[in-house]
Amino acid sequence: MCLAVPGRLISIEGDDPLTRQGRVDFGGVVKSVNLAYVPDAQEDDYVLVHVGFAITVVDPREAERVFEYLETLEQEMDESTTGGPAAR
After folding, report:
1. Most CB atoms closer than 10 Å: which of 3, 17, 20, 46?
2. Confidence check: pLDDT of 49 > 60
């Protein structure tokens, strides 16, 4: 199974299209990712990242939907491990 996660591009470094890097914020965790596959990406864009590579620019509303879904999953997992309502 493959997983790609959206994040907000907060800065871009380098001019070479193959080695250009971006700092991407994943809800407070900031990582450096390769931007070779998204040459048109700009600061404040949301990008979908897979194994250290931004693979596409995504719509901000869609990124927010993913963040909300992940937050819901996290809450349900927390409740299931602490015996809360989801542990039934």
Report:
1. 46
2. yes
